[in-house]
Write a structure and sequence with these properties.
The complex is a heterodimer of chains A (505) and B (310).
Chain A: H1 7-16, H2 19-43, H3 51-86, H4 90-94, H5 100-110, H6 113-132, H7 137-164, H8 168-190, E1 197-199, H9 207-214, E2 220-223, E3 226-229, H10 230-252, H11 265-281, H12 286-290, H13 300-329, H14 333-342, H15 345-373, H16 385-411, H17 417-440, H18 445-452, H19 469-473, H20 475-504
Parallel strand pairs in A: 1-2
Antiparallel strand pairs in A: 2-3
Chain B: E1 2-11, E2 14-24, E3 29-33, H1 40-47, E4 55-60, E5 63-64, H2 69-73, E6 76-79, H3 91-101, H4 109-119, H5 135-147, E7 153-157, H6 165-180, E8 184-189, H7 193-196, E9 201-206, E10 209-215, H8 216-223, E11 228-236, H9 240-248, E12 256-257, E13 261-267, H10 270-282, E14 286-293, H11 297-305
Parallel strand pairs in B: 3-8, 3-9, 6-7, 7-8
Antiparallel strand pairs in B: 1-2, 1-4, 4-5, 9-10, 11-13, 11-14, 12-13
Helix pairs in contact in B: 3-4, 5-6, 8-11
Classes of the chains: A mainly alpha (505), B alpha/beta (310).
């Protein structure tokens, strides 16, 4: 105990690892492993203890212990910060001199201590059964470590969720959503292999890579067009997730959720840049999904499809990053009023939209670099640079408008303003398409949609590009954003003045 | 030791604390009194850096809390109004955790933990689980946690609420001991008798406004500017001679006399009071009691908060 310098971790060690509890957990693990071995023996038609049998026992125990580790960790870590708030111990460690990093690390490894104990107890059994099953030692130990690293990544995300959750109910909803995403990702990862080199997206979870590794082969995925081991990508992704989560936790773990955002504006841009980097790194030519990874780039149809998919994926990723930036940097009512006390409205508005514009700029730069970097994949097709910029500028303008709308919702006294605002925006975009189709008719709907949604690229042959008209299409979103901004500042200044008058009275 | 400058906290249109400016000198026990919702908790939370003020600032020992939170918090011990403790730890483990969390020298931690356990009177419970402690013991453990790092300032939010009389008595004794050790203590409460026998200063808050703040004696003086003292007397025999003597001194008009006891306001110094007592005994009155009744903090609060001196 005296070698543990992290007080938060030490607290968990003391409360979770009392001798009786340790004994119960270890005996339960051993008992569970024994039961599984007996059950598999019963199912084993040969009724012998050959390598195949031990391989099956290893697989069952490995899967069970991994699932217990990940799910139990998720359960404990999701409640770790929010339970301090509900049990009213939160203020205590907020007033101590524990650094946010110490707290985050202590909770990350301390809260799921029991699940780690189960996993650690399973290790010697896995080692023994794996070797008896003629599995390679490097594969056994490597798989074990990859799952451990992956679990730290999942726990880090859960800890961020716990730090942001207002109460246990929301933390539970977050946990259930996380489990659903995890299950879907695992299921998707196992089926995302086409040909010899899979998509790097399948490396988000290590299941497919580990399954192959234990059988003696290595799953490889495409990263920047190069074939790399899937588990290496999984490890790198886990490390990146852990790093960004720690950045977020250091910023916000000692604050109430409504006092501070998860990321600072600069960090939001950094997270977006990291995501775009992975999206473009994971890009594969269309041919990889159709026939083989090394399809000749000379095929004009495939080259055009590859170019369009690169632009489409980039644009979708940019939209995701922009809305993430908006949601992560919206000011709370309290913070907005505080800002308006200390700064002029124009300056506050600029500070609000700067991270959105910066994320948009990073998205454009990433798209250009990707188009230049992957140009050999679509040698026959040439990107229409003007249309590309027009689309990005248009998307940024509309996201800015939507962001200002959400900020306006936040400035009103509404419950769950961001959720309701996002639902209204979704309704707006669906309604835009429907209204355009009804009023202008399907053939001309695109012409009308240009005034209601981000710039719609006209695919019809022979229709010239919009040229300077793109500037006109930007008028509605920018004007709406400006009007909303004025509305936000006016309403906040009104309430601020009312409060000031009360103080003076 | 603690200075609040124009401290304000707003929640939307609600102003929880309005422009509060006070100074609490070192070694003082400051009773922060007011009804529920007066803004006491908000003010204390701003003082220890848990809540950012909308305007104004808090200085603890010259350190501005918002600017240098860690340094300020090393000087502050805080006990929240409703709090829980880590039930799955032993008493010594709980205090050990906070000693380390306040970055005390690790070699000195066991010694300090034992000191605090003795101070809060939980020696026999040292190795017991926290969940087995009574509410009063948990409250004392909470105070032990707040003082583990020897803070110069102790902020206690309603420390006596929910405690039985015995636990309240023990808490009062503990606070007196801490005062004797030189801590500056701010105690908020709406149970005024709790503050009665140890507060040296009080602040009266209502609806976010600090109505009055100062030493108890000064506030009493403010409430009764003509220095009237209430004298209570008891006697055996008839009440008539007592009434006649009081009439002779012009004290009967505001006196309340019953069969064998009564009270009257007296404006004059100790010399004059002694003279009156002497005359009463010379006149043959058989007195069994003659003493000054001090105005309680509760009465003081009621007068300050209901417009009697506003």
């Amino acid at each position: 105990m005296k070698y543990i310098s992290n007080p938060e971790f030490l607290r968990y060690v003391r409360s979770e690892l009392r001798p009786a509890r340790v004994a119960v957990i270890m005996l339960s693990t051993l008992g569970g492993a024994l039961l599984m071995a007996m059950f598999i023996f019963q199912q084993n038609h040969a009724q012998d203890y050959g390598p195949e049998y031990w391989g099956s026992v290893f697989g069952a125990i490995f899967v069970a212990s991994s699932m217990i580790l990940v799910l139990w960790s998720l359960l404990n870590v999701t409640q770790s910060v929010v339970s301090e708030r509900t049990q009213r111990t939160f203020d205590f460690w907020r007033t101590t001199r524990l650094s946010p990093l110490t707290l985050a690390v202590g909770k990350l490894f301390g809260a799921p201590l029991s699940s780690w104990l189960v996993y650690a107890t399973a290790f010697p059994i896995l080692l023994l059964t794996g070797l008896l099953g003629h599995l390679r030692l490097s594969a056994i130990v490597g798989s074990y470590l990859v799952i451990a690293l992956f679990n730290v990544g999942v726990s880090a995300i859960a800890l961020c969720g716990s730090a942001r959750a207002q109460d246990s109910r929301r933390a539970n909803i977050f946990m259930i959503l996380a489990i659903i995403v995890l299950v879907m990702t695992v299921a998707g990862g196992n089926h995302a292999h086409f040909g010899g080199t899979g998509s790097a997206w399948s490396a988000i979870t290590p299941t497919a890579g580990i399954a192959e590794w234990l059988q003696g082969s290595m799953v490889r995925v495409s990263l920047f067009g190069m074939s790399v081991p899937s588990l290496l990508v999984t490890a790198l992704l886990s490390l990146a997730v852990i790093a960004w989560c720690m950045v977020a936790l250091v910023r916000c773990i000692k604050f109430e959720p409504d006092q501070i955002s998860l990321f600072s504006p600069a960090q939001v841009v950094g997270v977006s840049a990291s995501f775009l980097l992975f999206v473009y790194a994971a890009f594969q030519p269309v041919g990889a999904f159709i026939t083989a990874p090394n399809l000749p780039a000379s095929d004009p149809e495939t080259a055009t499809l590859t170019l369009q998919s690169l632009i489409g994926i980039g644009l979708a990723a940019a939209i995701a990053c922009l809305y993430f930036a908006v949601n992560a940097t919206l000011l709370t009512r309290d913070n907005l009023r505080h800002e308006l006390r200390n700064r002029v409205p124009g300056e506050v508005g600029l500070r609000v939209i700067t991270p959105w514009l910066a994320t948009g700029f990073v998205s454009i730069v990433a798209a250009v670099l990707a188009l230049v970097g992957y140009r050999q994949m679509f040698a026959g097709a040439v990107p229409q640079w003007f249309n590309l910029f027009a689309m990005y500028v248009s998307v940024i303008a509309y996201v800015t408008r939507d962001g200002m709308f959400l900020q306006w919702m936040v400035s009103q006294k509404i419950k769950a303003p961001v959720l309701k605002g996002s639902a209204l925006l979704a309704c707006y975009y669906v309604a835009s398409v429907m209204v355009a189709a009804v009023i202008a008719g399907p053939p001309n709907a695109i012409q009308m949609l240009r005034w209601l949604t981000p710039y719609v690229f006209n695919m019809a042959p022979g229709v010239p590009g919009p040229g300077w008209m793109i500037l006109v299409f930007l008028v509605p979103p920018i004007a709406t954003a400006a009007l909303l901004a004025v509305g936000v500042f006016r309403s906040m200044q009104r309430t601020s003045k009312a409060a000031t008058a009360l103080v003076q009275a | 030791m603690i200075r609040l400058e124009n401290l304000t906290k707003e929640y939307d249109e609600v102003v929880a604390v309005r422009d509060v400016s006070i100074e609490i000198p070192e070694g003082e026990i400051y009773g922060l009194i007011g009804p529920n919702g007066a803004g006491k908790t908000t003010m204390l939370r701003m003082c220890c850096g848990l809540l950012p003020p909308t305007a104004g600032k808090v200085l603890v020992n010259g350190i501005e809390v918002q600017n240098d939170l860690e340094s300020a918090q090393s000087q502050i011990g805080y006990l929240a109004d409703f709090f829980s403790v880590y039930d799955d730890l032993k008493v010594w483990e709980y205090l050990d955790y906070f000693a380390r969390a306040y970055k005390l020298d690790s070699t000195r931690v066991p010694e300090r933990v034992n000191e605090v356990i003795a101070e809060i009177g939980l020696d026999v419970k040292r190795d017991s689980m926290v969940k087995g402690l009574s509410r009063g013991m948990k409250q004392r453990l909470g105070i032990g946690r707040a003082v583990i790092h020897r803070p110069k300032v102790l902020l206690l939010d309603e420390p006596a609420s929910g405690l039985d009389p015995k636990a309240r008595f023990e808490l009062r004794q503990l606070l007196k001991r801490l005062r004797d050790q030189g801590s500056t203590i701010v105690v908020s409460s709406h149970i005024l008798p709790d503050l009665e026998d140890f507060s040296t200063s009080i602040g009266v808050m209502e609806r976010g406004v600090m109505l009055r703040s100062g030493r108890v004696g000064e506030l009493r003086q403010e409430v009764e500017p003509d220095n009237a003292r209430t004298i209570q007397i008891r006697w055996v025999g008839p009440a008539t001679p007592v009434a006649e003597l009081l009439r002779a001194h012009g004290l009967l008009q505001h006196a309340v006399l019953q069969e064998h006891e009564g009270a009257f306001p007296f404006r004059g110094d100790d010399e004059a009071l002694s003279q009156l007592l002497s005359e009463m005994t010379t006149a043959g009155l058989r007195l069994t009691g003659f003493h000054e009744v001090k105005q309680s903090v509760e009465e003081l609060y009621l007068k300050l908060s209901h417009g009697q001196v506003m």
